[in-house]
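[job 4471] stage=fold_predict status=RUNNING
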Amino acid sequence: MTDPIQQIYDFNYQAGLLEKPYDDFLESSFQIEEALEGFEHLHALADILGVDPNSPKLPRELSRIIAATAQKGTPNPAGYNVWSDLSDLERFDKALDAIVFAFGSLFKLCLTPGQALRGLSIVMNANMAKLSMPKDAHGKLTKPPNFVGPEAQLQLILKERTCDN
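[job 4471] inference complete, writing structure tokens
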């Protein structure tokens, strides 16, 4: 199995994502977007923030507004270009903490470290299929029309668990 951390680096490099400088707003909004995916009642949050609750990209739109609001104190759904004065040390710590929480979540699902790494590799292989696709307005690669997600392979790993989840 390829080192999944190296796969993540290779993906970011090949996608041209390392050519742009670190952006506190985008990095935070990408993580918020992932955290919001799968929640059924995002329409309530959309109503509060004045976003179309029927938008097919609702988690993405909400994440941008949340990040902009957190940085500047007021929603900025149109511009999103907000600044931050985090140091690289704070950014480094913040990113590593996100990894610790993410892996902790995997372990709470009764996955072993080996299963978690295999899952990460599966997700990265799926992400590699996006490399030839255009990027959205914020630089995130879009999925190809024939994209096959990692869910079926991830489900096989979940079936290997030995706990009662």
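[job 4471] summary: Residues 4-158 form one domain.
[job 4471] exit 0
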